[in-house]
Amino acid sequence: MTANGKKARDGADRALRERAARVIPGGMYGHQSTALLPDGYPQFFTGGQGAHLTDADGRRYLDFMCAYGPNLLGYAHPEVDAAYIGQLRKGDAMTGPSPAMVELAEAFTSMVTHADWAIFCKNGTDANSMAMVTARAHTRRKTLVLAKGAYHGAAPWCVPRPAGTTPEDRANQVFCTYNNIESLEAAVAKAGDDLAAIFAAPFKHDAFIDQAEVDPAYARRARELADRTGALLVIDDVRAGFRVARDCSWSAVGVQPDLSSWGKCVANGHPISALLGNDKARAAAASIYVTGSFWFAGAAMAAGVETLKLIRETDYLEKIEGLGARLRQGLAERASAAGFGFRQTGPVTMPLFLFDDDKDLAKGFAWSSAMLERGVYVHPWHNMFLCAAMTEADIDFALDAAEASFADLRKNRTELRPAAKMAFLTAG
Length: 428
Fold this sequence. Notes:
Helix content is 36%, strand content 13%. By secondary structure, it is of the alpha/beta class. The strands form three sheets. It has a seven-stranded mixed sheet, sandwiched between helices. The longest helix is centred in the last third of the chain and has 23 residues, at 316-338. The radius of gyration is 22 Å and the shape is globular. The chain starts with 11 loop residues before the first helix and ends in a 16-residue tail after the last helix.
């Protein structure tokens, strides 16, 4: 049994799960629940440093989830955390905001081409909801065009699981197929004179299926349709922001939105998100009422100022692109040598791994579990992230683990059984 062996999983993590089940509905909720992960995956962690996590039982992992995206520069980054702690000691949630709010807005608008103003909140859901009401206030219309399967948050209007919501919560929405211009045009036509906004992810990063980079023609057509109809174009950059460009992600294909929503990594894990917009939408943004008791707290804003400084002044992006390319090539070579069809999609900084002929994720679950046993935390069906604290040695460690895990999978492939948790993928 390895140091990360399953037998050791009956310790602190198991005890915490049992305690949580008594006081937290379902034992855990949201995207960080391990309910749809292999059974051996830890639920609780005690610390993070750089590119590594330590779970409640003391096992250390090279972490390719990066907290589902917030870790851009490294866990416990010294400069970012010093900025956070320094402002925390002076004042965090106060009767009014600290000067860091203005500094952060100035930093954002100096870096993001389309942005003339910024509004801050705490979650990506908040930012996308503000984009929705800003667009409706600007156009005095109701209907949104969104891509089928895209994730924009956990508010009733967009949450992927409908329990507790009503049809009215999801009214005034028309769906298209991402990267399909005909489908987009048909959705806009269906919305007619009531179109308020076209929402778009920077690339297709839905769970359980291959990712797809945006077709520049699709992006340009979305911009043209918004201009023609008077609607606003919204880019949901909560997940991908600053991981594919130092600007709004669609800047890479020469398209600027009217509004963009940001979160996750903009303060390297400290809680803050943002809605950015152009002058066209300024009056509408000033007219809506949005607020939160902790939205104006200064410590995360100070961390954001420092994070954006590091984004501007360091080679973090080039570094994670290089590491991502090294990882992608190495995994392709090792999967091929082991005889597996292994698909790697999306930007190299945000990879998704799926096996061919694996609709029930039996191979994905087995391989991911084998990686975990070797100290590498990968996800069997969600996109992952690289952070700037990773090194070439880390990537080589992951590749060695992958080679051994492919060998395990090849040896045991005849004994694989469908992952019961994933039965919904093949139902019907």
